[in-house]
């Protein structure tokens, strides 16, 4: 099942979606927590921020594509991957450790131009 979301970063809105194909329990927890707000941290081609829930590993992977949205259980953070991270071995993003993949950005390329974001809000799309 696919649920459309809006991701607002410093006043700019982007489209994405949450799906339950790979990590259904994690996706459900995120959707039940919407809207969520945070102060994102940049780590190369990744923004991440703390979310108000915890869940452990659920089909975790380090095999990602730009645009993937994942949950990192060790830090209870949501991660938006849009490019190379400091530990990437090719052009694809690589997380610090495995994440539960729960979604995708419709178009991740505009995120490449954002540096040091201050505020992120994720909400269900009407």
Q: What can you see in these coordinates?
A:
The chain is mainly beta and 126 residues long. It has a single domain (2-124), classed as Beta Barrel (Cyclophilin). The chain has 1 helix and 9 strands; from the N terminus they run ββαβββββββ. The chain has one helix at residues 24-33; strands spanning 2-9, 12-19, 36-38, 41-42, 46-50, 68-72, 77-81, 100-105, 120-124. Strands 3-9-1-2-8-6-7-5-4 form a 9-stranded antiparallel β-sheet. The longest helix has 10 residues, at 24-33. It is globular and about 30 Å long. The chain starts with a strand and ends with a strand. The model has no long low-confidence stretch (mean pLDDT 96).
- Could you tell me the CATH topology label: Cyclophilin
Parts with pLDDT < 50 across at least 5 consecutive residues: none
CA(first)-CA(last) distance: 16 Å
Strand order, sheet with most strands: 3-9-1-2-8-6-7-5-4
Strand content: 35-45%
Instruction: Give the beta-strand count.
Output: 9
CATH class: Mainly Beta
What would you call the structural class?
mainly beta
CATH architecture: Beta Barrel
Helix content: under 10%
What integer value in Å does the Rg equal? 13 Å
Mean pLDDT across the residues is 96
Question: What's the tally of helices?
Answer: 1
Which outline best applies? globular
Largest sheet: 9 strands, antiparallel
Helix-strand pattern: EEHEEEEEEE
Overall tally of structural domains? 1
List the helices and strands and how they pair.
Layout: E1 2-9, E2 12-19, H1 24-33, E3 36-38, E4 41-42, E5 46-50, E6 68-72, E7 77-81, E8 100-105, E9 120-124
Antiparallel strand pairs: 1-2, 1-9, 2-8, 3-9, 4-5, 5-7, 6-7, 6-8
